[in-house]
Every structure is written in structure tokens, then in C-alpha cells.
Amino acid sequence: MKFEGVSQAVAAIRAAGGRALVLVPPEHLHQLTDESGVETSVVGDNGHAALVFVRTK
Fold it and tell me: What is the pLDDT of residues 15-51, one digit of tens each?
């Protein structure tokens, strides 16, 4: 799935059980890691995409 913002992604993650692996362009990574409604852990970043484990609070 592709989302147009963090709030859409968080809502979908919450609806799907509260955990997900998410691909994010590195320039937008801060939007996800700064979101107060989730806990994030960056798994990897190849410069083109960051893989992030996201868990809703």
C-alpha cells in the first residue's frame, strides 16, 4: 500500500494489528520517527529507501 501521509499510514497499521514494516524515502523518514503515536526502529537505509519497523502505541 502507498500512503500520502503519516496519519494514513498509522491508521492502516493500527487497523492491521499495530505492527508493520514500512519503506520510506530517507528525506521523509523524520515524519515517521517523530510521530508521537508510534514507536519506530530503522532496520536499514540504502540511501533510496529506509526500512522501518513501526509499532503503534
Answer: 999 999 999 999 999 999 999 999 999 999 999 999 9
**CA gap 57, 42 in Å, rounded:** 17
Q: Which residues pair with 40 in a beta bridge?
A: 54
pTM of the predicted structure, to 2 decimals: 0.90
Computed from CA positions of residues 4, 36, 49, 22, in that sequence, does the dihedral angle turn out positive or negative? negative
Cβ neighbours, 10 Å, residue 23: 10
Distance CA 21, CA 44 (A): 11
Check: CB of residue 11 under 8 Å from CB of residue 38: no
